[in-house]
């Protein structure tokens, strides 16, 4: 049972009969309780002013959920002087957020990389010319599809988010291709340097032999 932070969740014990006493615990600590013989509902610890207890069904709603609310929930409900129990494991996670797409150009290859913040993320893509677009955070775009639009979908168990990107934007935004090495010199420049070095080597040798 997975829920979204800042949201809420409802716990349903499905225990029938007229309730005499309702006692909920979170990770073995008191959470909320009610007794027919006493007025009012008592809330404890971080659940104060955050629960709504239905005294007829035993259902409890928790609001303003945070990751501190994950864990084991237990209900002890007395019906006809007999205690009936219910347990539910709850996980609370953050939503997908800050989805973004960046591009990388290496030679003639354009790669789109999708990233996002949040736990338990899965990625998928839509767009022309894609092969096996599921469960991949990055895709490679062929030259004939550089003007096409691609969409990255990021999901986790409680939310999803999409981001669009036009592959041709990678070159129009001034991003330079990454070379395969850290230093790149054109061939004509290398030849020029070699000629200069050769010239100075000959001149040095000539002066040395003349002095002797």
TrEMBL record:
Matching InterPro entries: CD2/SLAM_rcpt, Ig-like_dom, Ig-like_dom_sf, Ig-like_fold
Gene Ontology cellular component list: membrane
Subcellular localization: Membrane
Domain of life of the source: Eukaryota
Sequence ranges assigned to domain Ig-like in this UniProt record: 107-166
TM segment ranges: 183-206
Keywords, in A-Z order: Glycoprotein, Membrane, Signal, Transmembrane, Transmembrane helix
Stated name of the protein: Ig-like domain-containing protein
Organism: Denticeps clupeoides (denticle herring)
Lineage start: Eukaryota, Metazoa, Chordata, Craniata, Vertebrata
Gene: LOC114764513
């Amino acid at each position: 049972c997975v829920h979204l932070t800042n949201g809420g969740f409802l716990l349903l014990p499905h225990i029938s009969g007229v309730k005499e006493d309702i006692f909920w615990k979170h990770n073995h600590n008191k959470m909320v309780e009610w007794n027919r013989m006493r007025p009012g509902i008592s809330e404890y610890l971080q659940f104060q002013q955050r629960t709504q207890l239905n005294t007829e069904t035993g259902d409890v709603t928790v609001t303003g959920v945070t990751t501190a609310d994950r864990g084991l929930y237990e209900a002890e409900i007395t019906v006809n002087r007999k205690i009936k129990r219910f347990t539910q494991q709850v996980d609370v996670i953050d939503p997908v957020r800050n989805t973004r797409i960046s591009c990388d150009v290496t030679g003639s290859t354009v790669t789109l990389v999708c990233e996002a913040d949040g736990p338990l993320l899965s990625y998928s893509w839509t767009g022309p010319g894609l092969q096996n677009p599921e469960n991949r955070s990055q895709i490679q775009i062929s030259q004939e599809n550089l003007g096409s639009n691609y969409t990255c979908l990021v999901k986790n168990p409680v939310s999803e988010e999409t981001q669009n990107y036009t592959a041709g934007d990678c070159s129009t935004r001034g991003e330079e291709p990454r070379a395969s090495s850290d230093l790149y010199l054109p061939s004509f420049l290398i030849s020029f340097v070699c000629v200069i070095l050769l010239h100075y080597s000959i001149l040095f040798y000539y002066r040395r032999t003349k002095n002797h």
